[in-house]
Amino acid sequence: MENMTQPDAAQTPVIILGDRYRLNEVIGTGGMSTVFRARDEHLHRDVAIKLYNANTAEAARQESELSVLAALDHHGLVTLLDAGVSEDASRRTNRFLVMSLINGTNLRDRLRGPRIAPRNIAEIGYDMAEALEYIHSRNVVHRDIKPSNIMLVDYGLRARRARARLTDFGIALSDSAERLTLDGQTTGTAAYLSPEQASGQPVGTASDVYSLGLVLLQCFTRSIEYQGTIVESAMARLTRDPIIPEYLPAHWRQLFAAMLNRSPDLRPGGKELVSVLRQVVIAESGRHIDPASVSTATVVPGDEAATSGPLIETIPDEVLHRVTAMAARLFSAPISAVSLVENGVTRLVSHFGDDVESLGEDVDLSNSRPPVGEPVLITDARKDPRSKDSRLVRGPLGMRFYAGAPLILSDGTIIGTLSVINTTSYKPKTDDMASLEDLAALVVAQLELPSDGLRGEESTQ
Predict the structure, then answer these.
(1) In whole angstroms, how far apart are CA 369 and each of 266, 341, 364, 379, 394?
(2) Which amino acids are annotated catalytic?
(3) Which residue has the higher pLDDT, 162 or 320?
(4) Which one in 233, 275, 312, 405 has a CA-CA gap of 20 to 30 Å to 193?
C-alpha cells in the first residue's frame, strides 16, 4: 500500500491511490475530508475523490456514508464509482470515495451570480423532489439539504438548463446505517434545519422537504431566511414561520406554505411533492407562452426532448442574465430584459435592480407586439406617442425611459429585442445606443453558435 502525506488544501499532492487514481488539484474541503479532482488511470477519465482525514473517531461516520451511497443509484444523485483505503506517511489509514466528476457548479455558488429565472428554480426543485422521492422510498433521510449540496450539471448539449443532482450523504440516516448523533454535527448548516431537527426531535423524510423549501425560497429572496448562530437560527424557526414574499405567484406561495409547514405530517412528500413541482414547472414554462400559438404538449424535466428545443432555448440563462445586467449598467437603469420570439413562443429573461426587485414577479415585460427591426429610444415615455398609453407607463412600474435594440439573425430574421427601462426620464450618451446594439449582436452570436460552442465549468461536490 502506498505512502502519502495528510491532505492539505493549500497543496496539490502528487500521488496514486489504490494503484489507479492520480490526485490533482483540490476542489473542495470540509471538516472531515478533502475533495480532489483526480484521474482514473485505468479508464482514462476524470473523477472526483473524497479523501477522509485520518481520524479513527470518524470511522463509523465514514462507513455510514459509504453504506448509504453504495445502495443508491438515481439520475438525481452524484454517483459512487469506487472506494478504497490508503495510508498516510504516519501509516494511518485514510478511506477514500471515488465519485463522478460534475461538469457545472453548486447552487450556493450559482446564487452568488445573476438571478435565477423562476422556471429554472422550479426545475431545480423538481429534480430534487425526484431525488428525495427515490432516497426516501429506500428509507434514507439526507438531513443536510442545502445549496452547496445541490450540483447543477451542464452536459454540454445546448440544453436550455442544467440538471440538479444531490450530493454529500455524510450525515444521512438509513435503516442500514448507524444512527450517529454527535454534538455539533449540523453546525454550519443550521440555516436549513427543519423545526424538528432544531428542537432535537426525531427526524423523518419530511425534514428534507422542509430544508428543500428553505433552499428554493432562498433562490427567490437571495438571502438566508434563518440567519445567525446555530442557537439563534434554531430559535427563530421555532418562534416564527418563514416569510413568503407577497410578490410571488400563487402557485409558489401555496407550495412554500406546504413545504415549510411546522408540522411534518402536513408537508407534501414522495409522489405528491414531485407532482406539485411538476405543475409549478408547467406554470412557469407557460407564463410567457401564447397557448393558441403552440402545441398543447408540454415538456417537463426528464423528457429527452427538452435538450433539442427551439433556437431561442439554446442560449443559457447565464448569458442572458449577464447581457441584461451589462445593458442596465450602460444606461444607469434598474431594469433590462431580453425578449426572444420564435413560432409564437416568447422567452423572457429580465434583470431587476435592488430598488425595484419586488416588482420582478408583478410586472410583465413581455411585448405582445412583434419585435421591430430598428433601434428604439424614448427619453420621456409620458410624452412620447409611441408609449404614453403603454401599460408599463400607466401601470405600477411607471416607465419613463425606454431603449431597445433588435436581435436580428444572419438571415435577416428579427427574433427579439434587448431593452432597457428606467422609472425616470433619461438622456443617454451619444454612443450608448451603439453599445446596446453591440450587446444585442452578442446575443445573436450566441444563438448562432455551433453545438460545441457552449460549455460549462468543471467542478464537483
Answers:
(1) 45, 10, 13, 20, 18
(2) 144
(3) 320
(4) 275
